[in-house]
């Protein structure tokens, strides 16, 4: 028993010593990136899938739990694969050219995005749309910072909010099929289901009646 514990401590010391070696840093960063991508993806997707599934999906408890697990696994796996691919390609380019340049990041992420997130499915669609909104804000700020467009005299956010909400509700009312399915479900709950009720039970307590009255 004591020999086993000592062997484990020796193995742990060897692993810690390996982690401190700078020559292995790039490869180890790729591995930790895979780990962090998997953990972060699970943390982000599990609560979202839980809420959306129990709010908007029908089916048995087992089916709902399976759906949550599948969505969480897909998000976690894709993010882990992407981080692994991105950091690996970044390290390879830097090693080949002897230094890191901004284009390396763009190229590595493009290849990773194509390979990992190129499949048009609900999970990938949500992730890409989430990033797209952040990119538009980031590029707008960068354009002001670099002097490509003048600094606004007033905060433009109220106008952006008005245009975003005006556009999305117009699309929902007249071109619903163009919106992502989870957004359709959310808006249906908010703006269409609120038009229908039969008595106090489905006016205040429930969204829809489940009986056959």
TrEMBL record:
InterPro entries documented for this protein: Pmp4
Stretches of the chain forming a coiled coil according to its record: none
Transmembrane regions listed in the UniProt entry: none
Recorded GO CC terms: peroxisomal membrane
A Pfam cross-reference name: Tim17
Protein name: PXMP4 protein
Gene from which the chain derives: Pxmp4
């Amino acid at each position: 028993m004591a020999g086993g514990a000592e062997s484990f401590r020796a193995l742990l010391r060897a692993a810690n010593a390996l982690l401190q070696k700078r020559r292995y840093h790039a490869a180890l960063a790729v591995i930790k990136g895979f780990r962090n991508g998997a953990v972060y993806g699970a943390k982000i997707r599990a609560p979202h899938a839980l809420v959306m599934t129990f709010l908007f999906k029908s089916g048995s408890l087992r089916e709902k739990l399976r759906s949550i697990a599948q969505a969480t696994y897909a998000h976690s796996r894709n993010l882990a694969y992407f981080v692994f691919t991105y950091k690996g390609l970044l390290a390879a380019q830097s090693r080949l050219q002897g230094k890191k340049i901004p284009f390396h990041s763009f190229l590595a992420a493009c290849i990773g995005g194509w390979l990992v997130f190129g499949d048009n499915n609900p999970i990938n669609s949500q992730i890409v749309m989430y990033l797209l909104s952040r990119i538009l804000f980031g590029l707008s700020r960068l354009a002001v910072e670099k002097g490509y467009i003048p600094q606004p005299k007033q905060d433009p956010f109220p106008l952006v909010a008005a245009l975003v909400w005006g556009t999305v509700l117009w699309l929902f009312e007249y071109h619903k099929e163009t919106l992502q399915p989870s957004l359709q479900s959310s808006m249906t709950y908010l703006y269409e289901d609120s038009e229908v009720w039969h008595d106090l039970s489905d006016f205040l307590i429930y969204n829809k009646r489940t009986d056959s009255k």
